[in-house]
Amino acid sequence: MKQVVGMVVSNKMQKSVVVAVDRLFHHKVYNRYIKRTSKFMAHDENNQCNIGDRVRLDSSRPLSKRKHWVVAEILKKARIYTPPTAPVSANVTSSSSTGTPTP
């Protein structure tokens, strides 16, 4: 069975992800290597993939009109930024000492 490795670019669907797979090929006229990207829809049974994850895909039977791949394994999880949350302090009495009534 064929296997490809790519990066998850979309996970907005239920149990499906879109994976971008890059490949290099040699252009004979320009004598250069050119990068081409193909996007594949893949089945993600447990909705574990996030945007930026590096995954390995296995080919499978057609699961829908455009979905012919299954996520076999997540090779590397993406680092997701979570903003720091400010701790809630019990400093409520200092706001009432300003003399303004609280509603």
Automatic annotation (TrEMBL):
CDD domains recorded: Ribosomal_uS17
Domain of life, source organism: Eukaryota
Keywords, ordered alphabetically: Ribonucleoprotein, Ribosomal protein, RNA-binding, rRNA-binding
UniProt entry tagged with the keyword Amino-acid biosynthesis: no
Gene3D superfamilies: Nucleic acid-binding proteins
Pfam families noted in UniProt: Ribosomal_S17
InterPro entries attached to this UniProt entry: NA-bd_OB-fold (IPR012340), Ribosomal_uS17 (IPR000266), Ribosomal_uS17_bact/chlr (IPR019984)
Role played: One of the primary rRNA binding proteins, it binds specifically to the 5'-end of 16S ribosomal RNA.
HAMAP family: Ribosomal_uS17_B
PANTHER family in the record: 40S RIBOSOMAL PROTEIN S11 FAMILY MEMBER (PTHR10744), SMALL RIBOSOMAL SUBUNIT PROTEIN US17M (PTHR10744:SF1)
Protein family (similarity comment): Belongs to the universal ribosomal protein uS17 family.
This protein's name: Small ribosomal subunit protein uS17c
Native source species: Stylosanthes scabra
Organism lineage string: Eukaryota, Viridiplantae, Streptophyta, Embryophyta, Tracheophyta
